[in-house]
Design a protein that fits this description.
InterPro entries: DUF1641 (IPR012440). Keywords: Coiled coil. This protein is mainly alpha-helical. The chain has seven helices and no strands. It starts with a helix and ends in an 8-residue tail after the last helix. The mean pLDDT is 83.
Length: 152
């Protein structure tokens, strides 16, 4: 029987198997060292938490949720295209620029009285026109908010 064990240890297939086991052992040592580093730095905990979040997201992605999200994405892209085609990017940039200029212009000024504002409105055609546009916008905006009104 001892002769059989010695023969099996010297057999080429057994030698190849031992070499493979040595490689696997080295790979496992490297893997354990990496896992220990990840555990020490908190990376392993972070990866586990990320896995939990991904699983929760995967579990919640029903066909209805996917359809709803895709519909909202399509509507948003369509709205952005509409804004772009109407020159909305220039409108937004101009609005921001005007707001920044107005803030700087009034930074260290006392608040204007109602009478001085009315005088300015009466004297400055640009202010009169802008206020007219703003009031018209508020009237139209109110009409378009019917989806937000509480139904009785």
């Amino acid at each position: 029987m001892a002769h059989g064990v010695a023969y099996n240890l010297n057999h080429s297939e057994t030698s190849e198997l031992l070499q493979e086991l040595e490689k696997v052992n080295n790979n496992l040592k490297t893997l354990l060292q990496q896992l220990n580093r990840w555990q020490e730095t908190g990376t392993l905990d972070t990866l586990i938490k990320l896995g939990v979040v991904i699983q929760a997201a995967k579990d919640s992605l029903t066909p209805g949720v996917i359809s709803s999200v895709l519909s909202q994405v399509v509507n948003t892209v369509s709205l952005l295209d509409r804004i772009q085609s109407l020159g909305g990017d220039q409108l937004i940039a101009s609005t921001i620029q005007a707001l920044e200029e107005a803030i700087q212009e009034n930074k260290n000024q006392p608040p204007k009285s109602l009478w001085s504002l009315l005088r300015l409105l009466n004297q400055d055609p640009q202010v009169k026109r802008s206020l007219g546009i703003f009031v018209s916008f508020l009237q139209k905006f109110s009409a378009h908010l019917n989806f937000a009104q509480v139904k009785e």
